[in-house]
Amino acid sequence: MRLKDDTSTEQKILNAARKIFVDKGLDGARMQDIAEEAGINKAMLHYYFRSKDKLFETIFNELAGEFLPKIFAIMRADIPLFEKIEKFCEAYIQQEIKTPYVPMFIIKEVNRDPNALIKRILSTQQPPLGDVIAQIKSEIAKGTIRHIEPVELLLNTLSLCIFPFLVRPMVQTITGMDVPTFNAVMERRATTVSKMIIDSIKT
Amino acid sequence: MRLKDDTSTEQKILNAARKIFVDKGLDGARMQDIAEEAGINKAMLHYYFRSKDKLFETIFNELAGEFLPKIFAIMRADIPLFEKIEKFCEAYIQQEIKTPYVPMFIIKEVNRDPNALIKRILSTQQPPLGDVIAQIKSEIAKGTIRHIEPVELLLNTLSLCIFPFLVRPMVQTITGMDVPTFNAVMERRATTVSKMIIDSIKT
DNA sequence: GTCTATATTCCGATAGAC
DNA sequence: GTCTATCGGAATATAGAC
Question: B16: closest CA among B41, A109, B3?
Answer without folding.
Answer: B41
